[in-house]
Amino acid sequence: MEHKMEEAIKKLRESKKRKFAQTIDLIINLRNIDLKKPENKFSKDVVLPHGRGKEISICVISDSNGVTKREIEDFARKKAAAKAFTKKYDFFLCEAPLMPLVGKILGRYLGPKGKMPKPLPPGRDPTPMVEQAKRMVRINVRDSPTIQLAIGSEDMDDTQIKANVEKVVEEVRKALPAKAQIKNVYIKTTMGKPARVGVSNA
Predict the structure, then answer these.
(1) Cys-Cys with 62: which of 29, 32, 95, 198 at CB 3.0–4.6 Å?
(2) pLDDT tens per residue, range 143-172
């Protein structure tokens, strides 16, 4: 059954309460998209109007203010540590000159998870980009026509959740290749059942 956004959020609120604030996930299924063609795959960062409703871990890779070049080079000899390092953070920012090194040593772990770093101009205070990244989600369409990502938590206001969902749906629609469409959209809590949300392809 398809619901208006407000009805879908209300339905989520009616599910069994947990001892923690559950994450709210957005699930978008696509149609008419051939992912065998590399040009149809895409990745896009979206700044949520109201953030995710929880702390996001950001790693800054920089010789002046963060994880240094030497530390990254050490990961070439410590594969288990490199894998654990890339799992530890939600987003990565990297000074532009260090991007090739990070790609060479950590790309095999970051790439499949859609976590390749955003470039950080060398010498610039990373604080503004870190603050923006805390409100950011990354849309990845690679091998599956389904997008699933966290867009908030259940202790956020209904209006905040609605705005975040609408922002991501809008940005997905803008990024879709020709003829591709949004098939359907669902929202769900961590432990709850999905509620289908009505959206247009206009």
Answers:
(1) 95
(2) 999 999 999 998 899 999 999 999 999 999
